[in-house]
């Protein structure tokens, strides 16, 4: 396959699927319409592009999965706002979104204590020791973006919830209450599909690709602080990092 073929999205044999041509035309239309605009009716678009409505729907479906379009039942399909692009760093979700001009918040779903079990190795504790589990929906401007499950050693952070508003920054709370600084982390990123429960909490389709990020954070002395599993909506958020050699 040539570089030009890769760049243009055209397969080596040169035959472009009809829906892909329509998708390209729709992308140009979205740029003209602008953020928040209502997409014209399917029958009108299918007629304008000279394709079957099933072909048009496939193109619209891909653009919706990519986060370029937003479907609202009973109202229609609208041009979506650009994805939030968050830096991969040790700064908190709260601080990162505020710097981008958005209003961050969280909704507490679960607070419980559990035996560490398989988490023990990551947290440098015994399997029988307890961990504090916090599950929170991450929001930006009241829109669900992610679902975060955080596990902390209960022996170290057992009174974490006392007098703390769980809608706020955990990083700041840990620093203020325990004088513990997040200094290093190991993170793994992969794509997955959400479970029905996760999709419901995030107000998205179970078929929507998600970004799964699993992190183990440690303090300035290298002692583990937390193990975090974060599930992000692939249609609403992306990540950026700076690499140097």
UniProtKB/TrEMBL annotation:
One of its GO terms (molecular function) is DNA binding. It holds the Pfam family UTRA. It comes from the Bacteria. InterPro entries: Bact_HTH_transcr_reg, Chorismate_lyase_/UTRA_dom_sf, Tscrpt_reg_HTH_GntR, UTRA, WH-like_DNA-bd_sf, WH_DNA-bd_sf. One of its GO terms (biological process) is negative regulation of DNA-templated transcription. Transmembrane segments: none annotated. SMART domains: HTH_GNTR (SM00345), UTRA (SM00866). Residues 16-82 form the HTH gntR-type domain. PROSITE patterns: HTH_GNTR (PS50949). Keywords: DNA-binding, Transcription, Transcription regulation. This is Putative GntR-family transcriptional regulator.
């Amino acid at each position: 396959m040539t570089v030009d073929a890769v760049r243009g999205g055209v397969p080596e044999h040169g035959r472009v699927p009809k829906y892909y041509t329509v998708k390209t035309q729709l992308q140009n239309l979205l740029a003209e319409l602008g953020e928040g605009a209502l997409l014209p009716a399917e029958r009108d678009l299918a007629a304008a592009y000279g394709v079957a409505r099933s072909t048009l729907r496939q193109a619209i479906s891909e653009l919706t999965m990519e986060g370029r379009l937003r479907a609202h039942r009973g109202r229609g399909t609208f041009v979506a706002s650009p994805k939030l692009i968050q830096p991969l760093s040790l700064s908190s979700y709260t601080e990162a979104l505020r710097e981008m001009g958005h209003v961050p918040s969280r909704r507490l779903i679960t607070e419980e204590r559990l035996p560490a079990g398989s988490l023990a190795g990551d947290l440098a504790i015994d399997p029988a020791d307890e961990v504090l589990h916090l599950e929170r929906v991450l929001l930006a401007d009241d829109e669900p973006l992610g679902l975060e499950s955080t596990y902390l050693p209960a022996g170290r952070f057992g009174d974490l919830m006392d007098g703390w508003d769980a809608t706020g920054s955990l990083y700041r709370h840990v620093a203020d209450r325990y004088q513990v600084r997040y200094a290093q982390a190991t993170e793994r990123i992969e794509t997955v599909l959400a479970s029905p429960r996760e999709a419901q909490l995030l107000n998205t389709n179970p078929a929507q690709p998600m970004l799964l990020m699993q992190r183990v954070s440690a303090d300035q002395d290298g002692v583990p602080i937390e193990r975090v599993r974060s599930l992000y909506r692939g249609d609403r958020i992306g990540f950026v990092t700076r690499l140097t050699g």
